[in-house]
Amino acid sequence: GAGVSQSPSNKVTEKGKDVELRCDPISGHTALYWYRQRLGQGLEFLIYFQGNSAPDKSGLPSDRFSAERTGESVSTLTIQRTQQEDSAVYLCASSFNGWYTDTQYFGPGTRLTVL
Amino acid sequence: TQLLEQSPQFLSIQEGENLTVYCNSSSVFSSLQWYRQEPGEGPVLLVTVVTGGEVKKLKRLTFQFGDARKDSSLHITAAQPGDTGLYLCAGAGSGGGADGLTFGKGTHLIIQP
């Protein structure tokens, strides 16, 4: 049974480097979400895809963040010129169609540490 | 900006006791979801409540959505060590996925044997 998978599980990088985080949603799920979980904070919504379209990118923390999705499949979240404040767990979720009653299924996350 | 205030932030009680976790907001949500998150894993959905005043039971867990759909509570009866974990409430806006979920900061629950 394939759930949401994310890679890498852990990423340690130096300040200023670029990183790419990958999410494989559940097959057949049209909706995909990225969240950020900082230590001691709740999950922070970053971006939503319906198919390969992201209608609103205003939740991305800065212009160093970008995301794309290929069809109704893999998504990548790219952080350019990483900063220490980018250190967090980045969680991806997918749901069947994006309705407000939909169940979002979360992956295990990528723990990003920026030194 | 919608905010969800979750309380208490930390709770440590003895096995067999009852507890309630609260989730409050000044905003109206179309649905309210409760998740449980284990270390190193993503949140797992426990329940979704949609209608104001709705009450749902999941074994020893009782979830309630406020009449005005601004607040919710999670009540655990006769807590067991297996209930230990991080509990998160999350609200969904009427825009569905486009709004994302607004999460509370979570309640770290420890049930001591």
In short:
The complex is a heterodimer of chains A (115) and B (113). Chain A has strands spanning 5-7, 10-13, 19-24, 31-37, 43-50, 65-69, 75-79, 88-95, 105-106, 110-114.
Describe the protein.
- The complex is a heterodimer of chains A (115) and B (113).
- Chain A is mostly beta strands and 115 residues long.
- Chain A is 0% helix and 46% strand.
- Chain A has strands at 5-7, 10-13, 19-24, 31-37, 43-50, 65-69, 75-79, 88-95, 105-106, 110-114.
- In chain A, the strands form two sheets. In chain A, strands 2, 4, 5, 8, 9 and 10 form a six-stranded mixed beta sheet that branches.
- By secondary structure, chain B is mainly β.
- Chain B is built from no helices and eleven strands.
- In chain B, the strands form two sheets. In chain B, strands 2, 4, 5, 9, 10 and 11 form a six-stranded mixed beta sheet that branches. Chain B has a five-stranded antiparallel beta sheet with strand order 1-3-8-7-6, with no helix packed on it.
- In chain B, a hairpin with an 8-residue loop joins β9 (85-92) and β10 (101-103).
- The model of chain B has no long low-confidence stretch (mean pLDDT 93).
- The A-B interface holds A 4, 31, 33, 35, 40-46, 48, 50, 55-56, 59, 91, 93, 95, 98-109 and B 4, 6, 30-31, 40-45, 48, 50, 88, 90, 92-106.
Question: What is the topological layout?
Answer:
The complex is a heterodimer of chains A (115) and B (113).
Chain A: E1 5-7, E2 10-13, E3 19-24, E4 31-37, E5 43-50, E6 65-69, E7 75-79, E8 88-95, E9 105-106, E10 110-114
Parallel strand pairs in A: 2-10
Antiparallel strand pairs in A: 1-3, 3-7, 4-5, 4-8, 6-7, 8-9, 8-10
Chain B: E1 5-7, E2 10-14, E3 19-24, E4 31-37, E5 44-49, E6 55-58, E7 61-65, E8 71-76, E9 85-92, E10 101-103, E11 107-112
